[in-house]
Amino acid sequence: MPAACESVLEDIEDIVSAEDLKPHDRQFVRKNVFPKVRKRNSQKNVQTDDEPPSDSIIPGVQKIWIRTWGCSHNNSDGEYMAGQLAAYGYKITDNSAEADLWLLNSCTVKNPAEDHFRNSIKKAQEEKKKVVLAGCVPQAQPRQEYLKGLSIIGVQQIDRVVEVVEETIKGHSVRLLGQKKDNGKRLGGARLDLPKIRKNPLIEIISINTGCLNACTYCKTKHARGDLASYPIEELVDRAKQSFQEGVCEIWLTSEDTGAYGRDIGTDLPTLLWKLVEVIPEGAMLRLGMTNPPYILEHLEEMAKILNHPRVYAFLHIPVQSASDSVLMDMKREYCVADFKQVVDFLKEKVPGITIATDIICGFPGETDEDFQETMKLVELYRFPSLFINQFYPRPGTPAAKMPQVPAAVKKQRTKDLSQLFHSYNPYDHKVGERQRVLVTEESFDSNYYVAHNPFYEQVLVPKDPLLMGKMVEVNIYEAGKHFMKGQPVSDARVHTASISRPLAKGEVSGLTEEFRRSPQNGTNWKAQPSAEIPVKTRLSSWMALQLPWQQEGDGLKILSVSLALLAVLVMFYYGGMKTEL
Fold this sequence. Notes:
Elements: E1 36-37, E2 63-68, H1 72-88, E3 91-93, E4 101-106, H2 111-126, E5 130-135, H3 136-140, E6 151-153, H4 161-169, E7 172-173, E8 175-176, E9 181-182, E10 185-186, E11 203-207, E12 209-210, H5 221-225, E13 229-230, H6 233-245, E14 250-254, H7 269-277, E15 285-287, H8 293-297, H9 300-307, E16 315-317, H10 325-331, H11 337-350, E17 355-362, H12 369-382, E18 386-391, H13 408-422, E19 435-443, E20 450-453, E21 459-462, E22 471-480, E23 485-489, E24 496-497, H14 514-518, H15 536-545, H16 549-581
Parallel strand pairs: 2-3, 2-4, 4-5, 5-6, 6-8, 11-14, 14-15, 16-17, 17-18, 21-23
Antiparallel strand pairs: 1-7, 9-10, 12-13, 19-20, 19-22, 20-21, 22-23, 22-24
Helix pairs in contact: 9-11, 12-13
Domain TRAM: 429-491
Family: Belongs to the methylthiotransferase family. CDKAL1 subfamily.
Subcellular location: Endoplasmic reticulum membrane; Membrane
């Protein structure tokens, strides 16, 4: 991962006090939020028709559209933000046009992803939508010109998204960009038991740590996610248990570098994985996320045993980025090509059939034709079934952006050449005729098939039979393509159901703990379903219970004043009536 943070990161928490609450004390607590009030109409005491006074807006009744770019870690953050907002009473919508507010969750890995993010901001402003920004782009560079005046929720502050959305809807600009700490030690981020809405109710994405130990010269993500901070094992195991109780049948472990897990808290990845496999029910599977070569080298023996476990996919994503040691040195990747080969060769020997996925950057600054040919030879040698090919984009603020650049035409040609090599072989042809066990979890993009994965996390398309969804079944492979196989379920085979619990409905809020349901901010035993319309009367009463402390004080005084005035009128009316009778 990338180089040292820019100086702007030393004071990025513009309007929040350095005093921050501990993770278990801050469920929707509004302490230390100082909104920046936008300037209103220059005419004195004039309020435009389309912007009512902020104190007349009822929070928790608006529709919110959430768009997420990037990795599975970012997708998990998006799910958590959606869950909290829905639990509060907001309606999460798939229709951006009908939404009152757009929550844009960004990715900073590549220029095109940030371009899409920037264009979405512009479109939202053109359509007069309220906007809240999240993800790695505003966290890394909150003072970019196109972010001015907009609300931002930091990557470690997603548990406070309701506050930011509420203030934004009122017309304020709020920025929460601080780090979570406990006794001065940086934490992995927001607590794992927050409400969330899974994009796929059958798949739980668990972030085991945030940040990394590297300083890769091309990477912008480090500027946002920072140094390594791991979640405790017991919290991760509890989250997995809860997920299975909610009908989940597949867990993805994610982070910027799963292999580095635990180094900051005195443990390691194999220790975590052995604890997790103990709670995986029959018919469910665990998928590991990306790990860099240096941190997996010392755990090869244990990792091989874990990847051979029947409830763990024999799959590992190990980015090589280049097969040239000189390029790797310029990237500050902290390993050489021989290290990568050692990892791959060992796992291929000890875990028969394992799928190794990797990443390659084409046209990194200083890459020669000879360097690139070494990379081509590596791909030819291993014929990776899953290969992520990336043309180099210089990210602002990274050391690589200041290096002499490879001409754009050369980068483009190298990307094309590597892509042609990758598409010259078919990794699954030899598997036609096999009988495989697969777990069905998704629908294909063209909606013609269900998507399943075999024990090596290879994609298998199966017929769209609703009885198969969420089940582990056996299929006969009858066709193979570049990225998939097709399988026909075996009629006499046993079907495994991963959990006795029914999966949550799509859009249903997960993880509503008793603490959350009974907290003063949420009223007594109050629970919102994101897909259900909440009556206005209920929303109004819920809103009264969901006020900020300083809002409650002001409204309480108003209510008390009105109550006393009404009481006075009643007393006068009563005594006036008595005098009339006398």
